[in-house]
Structures
1.
Amino acid sequence: MKTRTPFIKTFAAIAALSLLAAPTAAEEPPLPVKTLFLGSARSHPQRHYYGTVQGSQRVNLSFRVPGPLMEFPVEMGSRVAKGDLIGRIDPRDFRTRLSDAQSRLSQTQARYGEALNNFRRYDELYKKQSVSQAQYDRYKTALDVARSALKTAEASVAAAQDALADTELRAPFGGVIVARMAENFQDVQAKQPVASLQNLDTVEIVIRVSEEDIANIAVADEKNRMFRLSEKVSLDLEATLDELPGQSFRVAFKEVGAQSDPRTQTYPVTVTMPQPKSARILPGMAVNVTASLIGGETGDPNFYVPLEAVVGDVSGRTWVWRCGRGGNIARIPVTLGDFRGSRIQITGELAPGDQIVTVGARGLREGRKVRVVD
């Protein structure tokens, strides 16, 4: 059973603050307040976020073995297909090592064959009790040693073959070389990045979204790859670039980062789009992503508002003040839900587009008029 202790404390705090309302007067001037609109086009007519382009797949390419580059055919901006050669290290030393390992393997195989034949002969003699236990054990031990040496030699050949194959660096997927970090004939170390490859058939845009937007409107529908305010109301995402004036591109939601930037209090949100045929969008380009409301007029009955918008009394009743025409206000009872960031969920007779008092709510009463200020 969930405890209601946090909400009781919240009610008490709200009620205590609410008792500080201003005294009545015959003709009081409208009280200046600040407001917000609940989940409507007026509340969020558009949101603009700024981000940068990156490929949908990204990898820094490096060799698994060290050596001098003898072939490095790619340049920054080169398009490559999966399996294309990125670079080749001088293979001569690796071929020599492989040849030596194969030679040792041949010798070891011969010794193993000899040890196996000797053991088989002495095994038959031992079964006939023609040789002693000590003689049998000596040839069995010799076979075990030869078998172990054979496995070691086989592993050495396999490692030398892998090392020789690793002198070639090939593209793990198709894409564009966006950076080249080495030069031909340069000695490179194992795992030293020599080139950066990105798949630009689909591009990603990473934008920074405020904590408030993440908490209040940016509910991610990962299945349909879009942001939703409710089942009927969602946010249309569109990208524009300064380099491509007059063009706009639909983008789809991919993921929301779980951790905010402690300096900016924003969350990374990744959206994606296919590479357009009419233009070339490259990594690092600056993008403006606009979020616009689409869908029906009826939103989710649950809204998230700043705690200061909620008023209460000592009996535990809570409400918000809804603004009407001419500065009139109406008290709307609400039920409190969960916190999301610095906001609290409210449920009541409210609809998207309702204008709710935030700053100044606890100084209001029935019949008092308000004046909305920025």
Note: The chain is about 25% helix and 40% strand.
2.
Amino acid sequence: MTVELACPLKTFYLYETHNETTMKKLLVLLTIALAHAPSFAQCSFTINQVATDVNCEYGNDGVITANPAGGLSPYTFSLNGSGPQATGSFNGLAEGNYTLYVSDASPCMDSVVITLTHIHAAPVLTDPPDQIVCTNTATTAVIFSSNIPGTSFSWTNTNPSIGLAPVSSGNPIPSFIAINNSTTPAVATITVTPIGPAPDFCVGLSQSFTITVLPDVNINLTSATGTNVQTVCSGNAISHIVYTLGGSATNATVSGLPLGVTSSFAGGSLTIAGFSGPYGIFTYTVTATGSCASATATGTIQSMPLSSSVFSYPESNLCQGSINIFPNNISTPGGTFSATPAGLVLSTLTGEIDLSASAVGYYAVKYITLALVSIQAHNM
């Protein structure tokens, strides 16, 4: 068992022991020590203190000064349990409750609780609302206000790239054209501090609000180059066409696709796929939408009919100088005619043979449609 007894200068310990003689000696020493210990209940000095309140709310210019009287000098002083000091003056204090401890040389210790408050209230700022705008559009002017007339305001901005100065003392912040040249939202945090009127210029608590500038909606072809302009035979599968959205885009739709070709949107990308339908040239439009102005992209899909290159001329043996002849029985119009070797004067579009202008010879006439070829030989 250990018993601890406290007095201003010394602490005495009594230990349990099995030695009766030693125990008696310790008790005698303890009795002597207690007989010479001072009494805390009999301090004879008083603490005279002067408290100077904080001038402005949230300030730290308060002062506490202690002037003890009636005790045995020198005195030591401590505030809220801080290290002792030889003077009774404490400066640079904020509002709050403080416990002042004073000890004299007897020694005796006493304490007193002192409360500091403020003399002048600080202004309270009305927190401005946050704003979200699209790039290249105007913000709403921000007008600062507080509960104390004559308050001025200073503010800082964390993101000047949106088109707003990094620091100012203006009120209001006028409307301005917000800028965001990136592909992600630009966020600016504006911190405003109210400052009360003269002569005290008390500074209030700061408030913050944000201006978020959204980027433009954008859309980009991310499948292989040229997949947005395709020509396929009717009924055949097209190569996948993929568009990826960016900026503030959240969705995309497409119009003008041929029968059998559809689109799907997932994960920020729109995919066009399927099998081309009837013959025709189809111009499609992809429209990306979001929080800001929409964006579009276009492409074409040409669906060709299944074709045959079969054709014929009325005769295969022709006489130079005779009337021009034309092919008949063209299964699929729209193809191209050619002849080898050189010497046969032939219209590539109609297949007409100019017999007067052609040289005598043996020629092979070729007719090409989409992916199909037919050849006929003619002798002149």
Note: The chain has five domains: 2-37, 42-120, 131-214, 217-304, 307-380.
3.
Amino acid sequence: MLTNLPIVLVALLTVQQNAKGTADNVVPHGEWTGACTLSGELNKLQKRGAHRLTAATGAVTSYIRQYLKTHIFFEKSNSGIYTPAQEALLQYYAEKTNEALSSVADDKVLKTATAIRDAGAAAAAIGGFIRTLDQIAASGTHSCLEATAGANSAKTKDPLGSAPAAGCEEDPGDLTAVDTATPSLTGGGYSAPNYDEDKSASSNGVGTAKCVFTKAKASNHMLNPAAGDQNIAGDPHYAGGLFFLDTAGLKRRKLDNAAALAAGSLILKRGLLASGHIDQTPQNFEAKKPSQLTADAAFQAIFKRIVLKETTTPGLQGPDLVTASKKPWVTTPTPTTIMEVTSPKCKYPS
């Protein structure tokens, strides 16, 4: 009996060691910091979406105000009698208002709002997962995140709620309208280096940092932890589908083609595709000077139609158009030219 005691002790110690969950390896430093970088880009995308909405509504408001100011000014100064050039200018602002209104149509606003929501959901999922792994640490001896690239070293936890790396903040603050570029978000995926293939997200180096979250689905200690002999039948996905548990351990999805992402990664898929719904250039209000109006194709077309009575677009352009417009107008008060419409003597409102 006594001769068998060492064998029994070894068996008991083996079971005890497995029960502690010190099974496999950490998420490499480059992988989890890269995830935070992606989360940060998605947060920037939300701000750009907010900028698109505020810019569009601002343009509508400004063009309506400009139309009304111009209309009131001409009404007061000319007692309700407009020159053809003044009618052309009013028509120009009316058409610019309609253009701006089209950018805030219900379908476009909803599409942009949905894109902001999708980018925010993906960013929150990624940041939440990394912050959770950051808290699973044992005072620098064991952890789920690698502290230093390539060392398989245990990372000490950060204070609860703080960001382990930029982009993984728990509270990104109120949404602001900032036209921030996100060149790595292509509208069809994510173009950062090494994201063109599924990649292992568990380090195989020798060290103290070990984490059961990254262990392969076979004999994973998340089920029946004392024995560790249960295979995980499902396909666990984390961080909105950025990471997934594979037969060989934790892996990170390829993201260069977001449309190819399937079930389990749909939150991330929608977040990446959101860029394509936000990147439309918003229409901005422009208060143009007379010299700028003469070069404006839209105003030229209106001026030809109303003032020169042309029904086709080909004809005079630029300086020639201004010269032609200086001919006297029968029974109409001044101003009569494009340049005079906004001249200082008319005290045109700014």
Note: The longest strand covers residues 243-246.
4.
Amino acid sequence: MQKRMIISDWNFYKAGQGCFYGGQITSRGSQQFSMIYDCGSTQGTAILKKEISEFKKLIGSEKQHNLDLLIISHFDADHVNQLDYLLTNCKVKVAVLPYLFPIERLYLYFANGYDDTTDDDLYSGFIQDPAGFLLQRGVDQVIFITGNGEVDGLVNNNPNPNGPQGSPDTSEIKNNQLFDLKIGLDDQDARLFYQEQAMIDAKYSGKVKFKKGGGDICAGLYWQFYFYQIRQEPTDIAAFRAQIKHTFEIELENGYIEGEDLKKIFKYQDRVDQLKKVFKRYFKETNSTGIVVMHGPINHSFALLSTPREQDYFPDCYTLLTGDTNMKKGWSRFINDRIIQTHIVQVPHHGSKVNWERSKLDDLENTTLIMNYGTKNTYGHPNSDVRNEILLESPHWQAIDNTELSRFKYRVVSYIEASKTFKDIAPMHLTHKPVIATVDARTLDDPEHDGSWTDVRSLSIGKAQWDDPDVFSVKIWRSVDGRWTRQSEEVPLHRALDLAILVIDALIEERSGTFMGHHLHPVIVAPNSLEELHEFIRDNRGILTERIIEINSLIREYGKYPVL
């Protein structure tokens, strides 16, 4: 089977005390899917706006940007207060956010409305009507996550745990359909919040959906975003409800405030200001209901994870985004079953000890844990005990600071089985008989990747062309105009390794000016052409270096097994 390569690039952008995470998934160079998780900060706002602008350049022209999926983990200002800037001249296919009752949203407004980095009018507008705020700014569809699909106290495992199933053959899929959104979230029972839903349905004509967590949204057949809601109502919400009734003289039906009442409250600006002054004195600020997202490739054979520190292959490669949720509340079976294959984890609530639960991550290996926080925050984030617990797990865990000064980026390359037979990878009818063969997926998805200076399209290990059963060789297959050419070369296995040694030593010589000592003893036989070789190496350092990194990873893996 031939493998298609799906490339995804992800960034925890510079956001200070907040979060701005996003990425793109591409295939064949031009087909693209884009996603954002949270967009806000209460420290380093100017820097964050530059980061947002940089991301938007990747997803369209100056006049029109196109985002496939926007996820809002929760409603705290430091995660949403730059949405207006993000959504300017930006079309969004789907936005996903947790549903909070109006009284909970109002509580968050008073808990967050004290810093000069948040536009009060914009934030209060978002709190009053989150769906309207997003729809008015270019979002096509809004999905509220309201609880999870639960059976006997356990969250229902996604009925399709590996995403949408089917043959990944995309030969009949149009280019603009390769990453079409597939929503696998179940509808929620409207009776839980029917009054506000009725108002929303009447106002927005079906553009807003209420769904259960414990399901997924997939980018075509290749990438899965799994959603799980952790509900955490403020502990003093009853006292706050009584304070609202007293301050604004509103009769609360069945003790609850409705969406339209919420809008009326903000018309009494003097009373709003009055309550702001006393809120922190009498009420305990707490993080609210939020969404945990686990995402990664599906329908793949393996994945290559590249971070600034290392590169390695894994059967699966998930990222876990936790927002400000509380790990102590627990996760679904879907997440727990996949935590062992999770290699990027966002530490919840900027590294707060209150939200941290070390035991939930016992199965993690080869994992990078991201702590996003502002360097001048007054909350003590990240907590020193949390940081120390992570550092104690080194080298299995790596702790990374993501602040207004530092971004963390990584790449996941997944290799997807495509509908190609063995004979399409290497010819089976010639005298060299392939046993193992490969096509570099990079040249398939992007013919210009190295096609500008080679016609090599396949490599194989097989029986030597003179058909000696005791001799195996490497074959370098060339293809011209879609046909295999007789100019293909065959090299014994040990000499193929010698060739790799020679190439690596030449790369070292270009940098150091000298060769390393080994059995080949290379000699410069054309000094006048040496600088041309050096220039070629420099011009193509990217595609050469990525192969050296892969060789290094394979050698480390080979070293784990004893030589008999």
Note: The longest strand covers residues 2-12.
